[in-house]
Description:
Blueprint: H1 2-8, E1 16-20, H2 22-35, H3 40-68, E2 76-81, H4 85-99, E3 103-108, H5 117-128, E4 133-134, E5 144-148, H6 160-171, E6 175-179, E7 201-205, E8 208-209, E9 223-227, E10 243-246, H7 250-253, E11 268-272, H8 279-291, E12 296-300, H9 306-312, E13 317-319, E14 331-334, H10 342-354, E15 359-361, H11 363-371, H12 373-384, E16 392-394, H13 398-405, H14 409-414, H15 416-427, E17 430-433, E18 439-441, E19 447-449, H16 462-474, H17 480-502, H18 509-521
Parallel strand pairs: 1-8, 2-3, 2-5, 3-4, 5-6, 6-7, 7-9, 10-19, 11-12, 11-14, 12-13, 14-15, 15-16, 16-17
Antiparallel strand pairs: 1-10, 17-18, 18-19
Helix pairs in contact: 3-4, 4-5, 8-16, 8-18, 11-13, 16-17, 16-18, 17-18
The chain binds ligand NPW and potassium ion.
Amino acid sequence: MNKCVLSASGSGHPVVCWLLTAAEMKRCDSNTSEIFGVPSVVLMERAALSCVDVIVSRQKKLEEQAGQLGLHPKRRVLIAAGGGNNGADGIAIGRLLLQEGYDVSFYLASGEEKASELLKLQLHTAKAYGAVICDTIPDGEYDIIVDALFGIGLCRPAEGIYREAIEWINAQDAFVLAVDLPSGIETDTGAVLGCAVRADVTVTFGFWKRGLLFYPGCKYTGKVICTQIGITEDGFLNQTPEAFTFTAPVAELLPARPEDGNKGTFGKVLLLAGSEAMAGAAILCGRSAFYAGSGMVKLSCPTLIHPVIQTALPEAMTADSVEASARWADVIGAGPGLSLSDRARKELLFVLQQTLQPLVLDADAINLIAKDEALLQELIEHQQNPATRRKLILTPHPGELARLEGCAIEEILKQPVFYAKKWANRLQAAVLCKGARSIAASPDGSIYINRSGNSGMAVAGSGDVLTGIVTALLSTIDDPFWALCIGVYLHGLAGDLAAHTKGEYSMTSNDIAEAVWAVLVKQEKNYV
Length: 528
Ligand SMILES: NC(=O)C1=CN([C@@H]2O[C@H](COP(=O)(O)OP(=O)(O)OC[C@H]3O[C@@H](n4cnc5c(N)ncnc54)[C@H](OP(=O)(O)O)[C@@H]3O)[C@@H](O)[C@H]2O)[C@@H](O)CC1
Ligand SMILES: [K+]
């Protein structure tokens, strides 16, 4: 995957933003100190300074605005610190703010005897500058609260005095800055462990953590500011993080279109989609494939619905069966609106057993496979063998993934990364788990977490649009995982544009399809 990441950037701007787990961040921290020799206390001072910068710039702005009205905003700060290095950051922030003339109170929830070595050092220095450390929250009103109870070291639910402190912080009418992560948010999953601080701003150090992006964590962060404190990609050594999201405009991720190409060059897409009751799925899928750059699209569906398809999408061709068109296609997409009929099963069997082209499986194609243990085993065996393996993408929603796995949907929702990775490995395929933060997994262990999109996309037909986009991209992008990541990103951006014009309440999946072209001609906003 990393080769793709590097080669996808023609512009010089970063293409990906890494999303780290707690273990990855700890490894990077310790490599920076132990291999490169930057002392932890230096990193901590820079981390604290970066938070102080955020507080001081905000305060300056407030004071300028208030000064015009003859008001004087107060500078009463509470540092709420835990017993680890997140707490140590908090104490360092408090000491620096004291030196800036702020009125700072310190609350150390853990007590000094349980303090980490760096925290002891920070307490010593802060006290030398006059800090008074309290073991209960000092009475008073605060304008600014620095949440430094837990960072990446949170390892169990916040209870007792920690729960009380978090609930107290959330009840205050103050600006809350969370240090590294809002306390209570699990670094890897974004889960709330017990309860969590609701921050106005989260200043995170070096790299984004996955939990800042996943739900529900992302609802607690406020604005996320990722600051550079001297921990860089060098600290990964040869172990790059598993997960990333995109930062580049999607148009920069797509391969350049050869100027002298013809309709064959840009991909002959065969779609096994649509049935008597779901002709619209085939139309949405085919239309999206065109908008995502396909040169030719052929829809294999029951003869009865050919007229409606030809009317709605005259650019597409239709076929009665995949058999007649299998050789013609560069790439095949199967599933949208397919139904679970005997015809659908027969057609899918033909695709799985008689073709070798790159393939995208979605919706009923996945459901048909999940229902048929022998077929599933055959697919797994084919994919496990490098001699018979084809380029394969699966785009299930959690319900479809649960059917494949044979478990309850709740199980998938609890561990979407785990199951996406499991099936990516089992099928040697790029596997998506759709959701508010769709997750794509590659057989090499890489994870893409999608940030684009909105709740308006949770609407019938949205997945059919995605299948059309991804199938089209698979015809010109060599790596299925990369095609999937870009397709998911583009789909979400199109959804955002559709929401901008029609609103999340009223947009339909056709609006998403119709926004694809606009995203590709527009420079969309950066998401991270
Ligand atoms: N290393 C570096 O170079 C840099 C590190 N930096 C900073 O360090 C932070 C990581 O520090 P960290 O590893 O000490 O973890 P941290 O988040 O402070 O928590 C650990 C403490 O919490 C405790 N604890 C956990 N859960 C609990 C619960 N539910 N309820 C009660 N206690 C609980 C746990 O206790 P224990 O499990 O031992 O009982 C332990 O005492 C990172 O987020 C960043 O802010 C930056 O300065 C940049 C440079
Ligand atoms: K924190």
